[in-house]
From TrEMBL:
PANTHER family: P-HYDROXYBENZOATE HYDROXYLASE, TRK SYSTEM POTASSIUM UPTAKE PROTEIN
Pfam families tied to this protein: FAD_binding_3 (PF01494)
Coiled coil feature spans: none
The protein's name in its UniProt record: 4-hydroxybenzoate 3-monooxygenase
Alphabetically ordered keywords of this record: FAD, Flavoprotein
Domain of life: Bacteria
Domain FAD-binding per the UniProt entry, residue ranges: 3-342
Cleavable signal peptide: none
Length: 390
C-alpha cells in the first residue's frame, strides 16, 4: 500500500505530525511497534511548555488538557534546605508551564488521530527503509506476522532513541555527540496530594530530588540514584524518607502515600547535527536526547514537528523545497539551547563531587546567584518556560 508521508512511531512527535498534515489534506499512515494500550500507559514526562500547549490547542485536541492540566507560574529551587522561588510571569512576559502527563497527551492525540480518520497501525514493527535517495522511498514492516511494504513520498522517523530511523541516515552525513551521566533517576507515582503548589528541584548533599505532580491527588517524584541501582533496593519507606530529607526545608513537611509506579531512567545527552537525508527526516528522541532535569524532551519533539509539518506543507502546496532543505538547521537552534539548559540544570542540582569540594562550592555559588541577580533568574525562567524566538 502507499501514502504520502510514512510516519514511524506514535509518540508525541509522530502523532502531532499526522494531525498537522491531515489538516492540510496530506495523507499519512503511522506505524507503531507497540500496542495502543502500551503506549497509552507508558509513564514519562509531565511538563508542557506554552508552545506545546498552544499546538495541542491549535490541533483541537486540548479539551481534557484545558480541564485537567495545571498551570504553574513559578518553580522552587532548593540547595541543602535553602529554598527560593523563580517566578515566570514577571520574568518572561506572562509565559507559564502546564503539568499534564505525557501518557494523557498521547491518549488525547491518538483519539484525535482516529477521530479524523488517520490510520495508526499498532504492533507494526518497522524493520528497514529503502530508497531515501529516490522520490519514492518505502518502509518495510511486520504486522500480524506478515511482511508489508509501505510506499511513500517521504519517511518521518519519529521512532525514538532506539528506533530504526536514525540507523538509516548515512554515517558520513552527521556528527554525533554524547554524554552518559554517572547517575540515574528513580521516578515514582503515588496516590497522595502534592505537598507543594509548584515543582521543587533540589540539590542535597545526598543527591538530587524533584517534587512534581499529576493532579490534586497524585504526586510524581524523582530521586538521584546510582546507575547500577535497581527498584528492588528501594522500599516505599526508604524512598519517602530519602525524598523527605533531600526536599526538606524549615517549616515544610512532605506527605507520603501509596506508591503505584517505580522505574529507573538513565541520564544522557545525545545529539546529531543533521536530522535528514534525501526523503528521510528525523524528529524528536530519534535525533536527540536531553537529561530530564530541564523538562524538555517532549517539548523538543513537538517543536521539531512544527518545522517538519510546515516544510512538507510548503512542498506539497507550492512545490517549494526550501524549508525541507533547511529543516535540520531550523530545528537545531532550539535543540542546542535545550541541550545547554538541560545540561546546566543537571550539573547545578545533582551530586557529582564531594560535599565542600571546589566543584560543589561552584554549584552553591551558582544557586546563590539566582537569588541575587534578576539576570540569572531570568535566564533560568525563559529557558524553562521555553524560548519563543527560536
Ligand atoms: P517516543 O515517545 O519515544 O515515541 C517513539 C515511538 O516509536 C514509540 O511509541 C516506539 O514504540 C515507536 N517505535 C520505536 N521503534 C519503532 C519501530 N521500529 N517501528 C515502529 N515503531 C517504533 N522527558 C521529560 O521532559 N521529562 C521526563 O521526566 C522524562 N522522562 C522520561 C522517561 C523515560 C523512561 C523515557 C524513555 C523518556 C523520558 N522523557 C522525559 C523524554 C520524553 O518522554 C521524550 O522526549 C518523548 O517521549 C519524545 O517523543 P518522541 O515522539 O520523539 O519519541
Ligand atoms: C517532570 C519531569 C521532569 O523531568 C521535569 O523536569 C519536571 C517535571 C514530571 O514528570 O512531572
Amino acid at each position: 500500500h502507499s501514502t504520502k508521508v510514512g510516519i514511524i512511531g506514535a509518540g508525541p512527535a509522530g502523532l502531532t505530525l499526522a494531525l498537522l498534515l491531515q489538516r492540510k489534506g496530506i495523507d499519512c499512515i503511522i506505524l507503531e511497534n507497540r500496542s495502543r494500550q502500551y503506549v497509552e500507559s507508558r509513564v514519562r514526562a509531565g511538563l508542557l511548555e506554552q508552545n506545546t500547549v498552544d499546538l495541542i490547542r491549535e490541533l483541537g485536541a486540548s479539551e481534557r488538557l484545558d480541564k485537567e492540566g495545571l498551570e504553574h507560574h513559578g518553580v522552587y529551587l532548593s540547595f541543602n534546605g535553602v529554598r527560593q522561588r523563580v517566578p515566570f510571569k514577571e520574568l518572561t512576559g506572562g509565559r507559564c508551564i502546564t503539568i499534564y502527563g505525557q501518557q494523557e497527551v498521547v491518549k488525547d492525540l491518538i483519539q484525535a488521530n482516529l477521530d479524523r480518520g488517520i490510520e495508526i497501525l499498532f504492533e507494526a514493527h518497522a524493520k528497514h527503509i529503502e530508497g531515501i535517495e529516490t522520490e519514492n522511498p518505502s518502509i518495510f514492516y511486520e504486522h500480524n506476522g506478515e511482511e508489508h511494504e509501505l510506499s511513500c513520498d517521504f519517511v518521518a522517523g519519529c521512532d525514538g532513541y532506539h528506533g530504526i530511523g536514525r540507523q538509516h541516515l548515512p554515517k558520513d552525513t552527521y556528527n554525533e555527540f554524547r554524554i552518559e551521566y554517572p547517575f540515574s533517576w528513580l521516578g515514582i507515582l503515588a496516590n497522595v496530594a502534592p505537598s507543594s503548589d509548584e515543582l521543587i528541584y533540589a540539590y542535597h548533599e545526598r543527591g538530587f530530588a524533584l517534587h512534581s505532580l499529576r493532579s490534586e491527588t497524585v504526586s510524581r517524584l524523582y530521586i538521584q540514584v546510582e546507575n547500577d541501582d535497581t527498584v528492588d533496593n528501594w522500599s516505599d519507606e526508604k524512598i519517602w524518607e530519602e525524598l523527605s530529607i533531600r526536599l526538606g526545608t524549615e517549616g515544610w513537611k512532605l506527605q507520603s502515600g501509596p506508591i503505584f509506579e517505580k522505574s529507573i531512567t538513565p541520564m544522557r545527552s545525545f545529539m546529531i547535527d543533521n536530522m535528514q537525508h534525501g526523503r528521510l527526516f528525523l524528529a524528536g528522541d530519534a535525533a536527540h536526547i536531553v537529561p530530564p532535569t530541564g523538562g524538555k524532551g517532549l517539548n523538543l519533539a513537538v517543536a521539531d514537528i512544527r518545522f517538519l509539518a510546515s516544510a512538507l506543507t510548503n512542498w506539497y502546496d507550492n512545490q517549494d523545497d526550501s524549508l525541507l532543505q533547511s529543516y535540520s538547521q531550523d530545528c537545531l537552534r532550539r535543540i542546542w539551547r535545550a541541550q545547554d539548559f538541560s545540561n546546566f540544570m543537571t550539573y547545578l542540582f545533582h551530586k557529582q563531587a564531594p560535599h565542600g569540594s571546589f566543584e560543589n562550592l561552584l554549584q552553591k555559588s551558582k544557586f546563590d546567584y539566582i537569588g541575587i541577580s534578576k539576570a540569572q533568574a531570568t535566564t533560568i525562567a525563559e529557558n524553562y518556560v521555553g524560548l519563543k524566538e527560536i
